Amino acid sequence: MIVLGLSGLPHAQEHLRRTHPDLSPLDERIVQGLDSAAALVVDGRLVAAASEERFTGEKGTGRLPEQAIAWCLREARVTPDDVDLIAHGFDYDRHRRTFEITGAPFDEVYSSATVIDGLTGLGWTRVAERFRSVRHHEAHAESALVPSGFDRALCIVSDGMGETESLSVFRAVDGTLERLHTTPIASSLGILYSIATRFLGFQFNNDEYKVMGLAPYGDPERFRPVFEKLARVDADRGTVSIDWPTNGLADAEQGYPHARAFLAEASFTPRTPDGGIHRDEADFAAALQDRLTTLLVELTSVWLERTGERNLCLAGGTFLNCKSNQSIAALPGVDAMFVQPASGDDGTALGAAWHVARGEGGGLAPVTGAFDPYLGPRYDPDEVRAALEARPDLRWTHVGETAEYFAAAAADIAADRIVAWFSGRMEFGPRALGNRSILARPDGDRIKERINGAVKFREAFRPFAPAVLDEDVDRLFVTRGFEPDRYMLCTAQVRPEARTVVEGIVHADDSARIQTVRDDLAPGFTRLLREVKARTGAGVVVNTSFNVKGQPLIMDPGTALDTFAGIALDRLYIEGYVVEGTATGVA
């Protein structure tokens, strides 16, 4: 049985732009169905997954993921006719009447026909009879439950919105999801955080991570009353309530002006972001982050107590907030925890495929180890050589993935050089986990300033994450060791005695968003970190995504070379090739 999973609503952003020609760039993502992706499950086993943005270069695109689909099929060596079922991570059709009453563009944007017609237009046949719509939050829940390997768990989904809900609570027993609670869109934690992001002058539904990065520089006390009055958990009902003023959520496409006016009246008038750290904005971000964390911890505690479950699965864009995840992981009622690395809507392609495969496809393959996020394209040395030979401006040598190759990369890092590392299959999800990464020594000279300024071209307050050998985690960081640590989904406090070793990745609150590295998932990256440890005494590096501001994570060798040539990297290590600055190519 072959099941293709899809995410995205192909015409949503196009409709928004056409109907709002004066749309601010900050509001271009106030729309459902972004982050389109494709995933392929063959005989119950996930074999491939990729986001469309990596192929097109349009960050977060929601267009029909035709290139991602084509790649998944090529990877599995199957054709469109071989696909038994097509699973989509939205089920708006059941709410057609509700949306039509509100005047929403149902047929053009929300109907499953938009995806069915898109595939048909690509030459697919019998699409409607193979097509299955999966409720959005069920797709999110499955995306975390299936790879967790838990026989039973409490599953919580929180995002901007599903079809009509913003938060869902499930109990999972032996692979069956029982929906226990939903919270309506009007009380969406995801929308609250995104409106506050837009209030601070950042892009809605894209720059929330910037606000999370800014928060540790502020004092939450100053604006704490604003958010305590606005949002709370009702422990008796087990729900979140957000008390926006009347019509506070109106005119969404204009950046929720009424909600932003309410926040301004209650707090301050923000300035246009200039990359710096300013007291008002930092204090506001701190209060927002503190309130989100408090609400999620309170809500999770309520449902852990009600259900008696000890295993926790989390998904939805809200749970890409690694600071909140750290506090949830610290709850004494949690014995084990899994967060889907692709917790945004791209992950619903996985969840929808698994949901349909489980229900109609004869079941899923047993979970035998940690979830492998390296699900995207890989490139062999001949493909890399062809890309290099097309760039006579770059100087390169071929070493092969030998001991010399790993030693050279480690020596560069130990010598305080900044390198790019391109190896194996591309990561699925927003985090670079060592296969498409920029790496550096965490105690390097002004390392944060150098990477933010000359390499990534991004705000100075943005933190970096460490990738650290599993064997070195406990001496550097304080963590419970749950699975999110493997995927940069949870921050950990830096041990005071280790601060000088990892100075460049310590954030303002003494935390770091760690990635623990082990042989089972990343043998090549583990090997590199061991070489680094042999030279520096610690198996830890700065690990940030190989891209620049506004660019999706790099997928292919050509894009890697183009990007390398335009930024201040010392070397690029790519599938056994070492690329240096401009010169004449040599074999």
From TrEMBL:
Superkingdom, natural source: Bacteria
Similarity section: Belongs to the NodU/CmcH family.
PANTHER family recorded: NODULATION PROTEIN U
Protein name: Carbamoyltransferase
InterPro entries the UniProt entry points to: ATPase_NBD, Carbam_trans_C, Carbam_trans_C_sf, Carbtransf_dom, NodU/CmcH_Carbamoyltrnsfr
Domain Carbamoyltransferase residues, every copy: 35-87, 131-353
All copies of domain Carbamoyltransferase C-terminal, residue ranges: 410-580
